[in-house]
Design goal:
- The structure is a single chain.
- The chain has one domain: Urate Oxidase (Roll).
- The protein is about 30% helix and about 35% strand.
- The strands form 2 sheets. The protein has a 5-stranded antiparallel sheet, covered by helices on one side.
- Helix 3 runs antiparallel to helix 4.
- It is globular.
- This is Uricase.
- Its main location: other.
- It is found in: Peroxisome.
- Catalyzes the oxidation of uric acid to 5-hydroxyisourate, which is further processed to form (S)-allantoin.
């Protein structure tokens, strides 16, 4: 297994034209499918962990970084020897909190329901959102990722001056999916979930 990691790190340094983790994953798939006759399918998972250079009084540290809480960008690319790549991208580990304008109401009730409706509560969660692309040509993957992340934050928080009420976590996640599909034409499927 370690040999594979060393191989990939070496591959990174020899391919400086890589613009996104999605292009990088497609490049790895293509490399293995074209280099080895016995390989008929390649599947690659890549994460881009958000690090930021330490900074104090406007001076950036020369070699030290800190993990930033902006969410982790990941992608999964699968390609058969005879077909185009299938690309999924996503956001994980995006921790969000709002102190009001969140409820849990309007759900189906029956004889087993014990949870009362609530119209105002804290909403703290970790969001996971994954989407699939229609195709892989001429896609600006980083811009698409930024747009979907902005939609997640916009639908979670609402306008900065007044917020937005959410009747349930499920409704917020549904709104994220609907808005992502309507505002990002490159995307054909979106799934979201969050931890309670």
């Amino acid at each position: 297994m370690n040999i594979h990691y060393i191989y990939i790190y070496t591959y990174i340094y020899t391919h400086t034209h890589i613009k996104s983790i999605e292009t990088f994953a497609m490049s790895i798939c293509e490399h293995f499918l074209s280099s080895f006759d016995h390989v008929i399918r390649a599947q690659v998972y890549v994460e881009e962990v958000p690090w930021k250079c330490l900074e104090k009084n406007g001076v950036k540290h020369v070699h030290a970084f800190i993990h930033t809480p902006t969410g982790t960008h990941f992608c999964e690319v699968e390609q058969m020897r005879s077909g185009p790549p299938v690309i999924h991208s996503g956001i994980k580990d995006l921790k969000v909190l709002k102190t009001t304008q969140s409820g849990f109401e309007g759900f189906i009730k029956d004889q087993f329901t014990t949870l009362p409706e609530v119209k105002d509560r804290c909403f703290a969660t970790q969001v996971y959102c994954k989407w699939r692309y229609h195709q892989c040509r001429d896609v600006d993957f980083d811009t698409t990722w930024d747009t979907v992340r902005d939609i997640v934050l916009e639908k979670f928080a609402g306008p900065y001056d007044k917020g937005e009420y959410s009747p349930s976590v499920q409704k917020t996640l549904y709104d994220i999916q609907v808005h992502s599909l309507s505002r990002v034409p490159e995307v054909c499927f979106v799934t979201c979930h969050s931890e309670d």
